[in-house]
Amino acid sequence: MTAASRQDTHPATISDLLDREQQRFRLTHPLSAAAWEEGKRHFLYGAPSHWMRRWAGGFPVYAAEAKGAHIRDIDGHDYIDFALGDTGGMCGHAPEAVTRAAVRQLQNGTTMMLPTQDSLWVGAELHRRFGLPYWTFTTSATDANRGAIRIARMITGRDKVLVFSGCYHGGVEEAHVEIRDGRIGMRNMIHPNGVDHSAVSRVVEFNDVVALEEALSHSDVACVLTEPLMTNFGMIPVADGFHAALREITRRTGTMLIIDETHTISSGPGGYSSEHGLEPDILVAGKAIAGGIPAGIFGVSQEIAERLWAIVPMVNPRVRQSAHLGIGGTLAGNALTVATMRAVLEEVLTPANFEVMIGNASRLAEAARTIIATNGLPWHVTQIGARAEIMFMPHPPRNGAEVIASRRGDLETLLHAFYMNEGILVTPFHTMFLMCPATTSADVDRHADVFERFIGLLRAAGVV
């Protein structure tokens, strides 16, 4: 008998339901449970990355194999994967084109600190897709954001970085902040790490043009670092006119605009910026760009490139290198990454595949909206491109403060645990659903069935 079909004498709480789902998970995943106990003997937080401990079952499943939009664990359970490595797997697992390119390059050398001919094709394609002419590769989007910030400070001579409350831009120190009681505070138990964040960061609410104008009026902000719409604090759509105001104010105040498309590349072949005609000074992407091989990229406009070259010339024939710049890494732009990036751009993240991905996201979002409306629940669904999110609040939030005030973390955790027991993976940090080219309409229909039964679980327990 499943937790969804049990009838209690007394109404259950969400905590009771979560306990049941976690117990069900433990009973049906003995090999993963044993592996987790073994991992705690050798890893600081139980697994190779401390983020892997955050799955709602109480411990992560241990993956045995993954293909397309599905993962099989060591206990033999199959999952529809809507997490897709929190976007790192947006190309799908083991896509043939990426695997073929990776194997070919592995046989020809992975890291030489020399460019390959693939890089010429990739550079031209990045220019075509994203509109910015000059690019640099890093090993992660975090490193790309750090490089972009460093360039902004070099060019402007200013120290501060403005971010929006509730943002996430990887391990960038300047972005580890949010508004707490009207002033700068640290996000999510992050230690300040010896950094005086009031000296290096400004933070305002997303979609707040008045606050943005005031924050940039002091002429001490080198750059605004933002996603086109917020995705890491729950999806926060952009308000009408906000991007136009953001671009006008940054230009008027001499502030560079860095747009981080690491998640919003799911909007289309050229990301949200290309789809909506945005004009960043620097554009950052990562995660999916090399098919799951660690990679980040940033591109700069012609103006920014020329301003940087005035400080550090592209070529100095009198020395072996022009400058260290504080940007890079030995493995940045390695031949393996470049080869898989070419395969992604040429054969996987194509317009045709995006059409399928976005169609499935629309199908999932519409089905979820219908189920919510039928049950009269005060929830909403947001969809942008190939990504959709269910949030347990009546309307899409306008900013981080509204997320903090209304978010139902308890329901999110319960949904994640129930979904894992029913063979669906959703990124543990969000209730977002991402499509890959291999996601099928049957996968989407399966989600609708499980979502209906999740609501049935809540109704039977008297929770909603």
From TrEMBL:
Highest taxon listed in the record's lineage: Bacteria
InterPro entries: Aminotrans_3, PyrdxlP-dep_Trfase, PyrdxlP-dep_Trfase_major, PyrdxlP-dep_Trfase_small
Cofactors, names only: pyridoxal 5'-phosphate
Keywords on record: Pyridoxal phosphate
Family, per entry: Belongs to the class-III pyridoxal-phosphate-dependent aminotransferase family.
Name assigned to this protein: Transaminase
Source organism of the structure: Mesorhizobium shangrilense
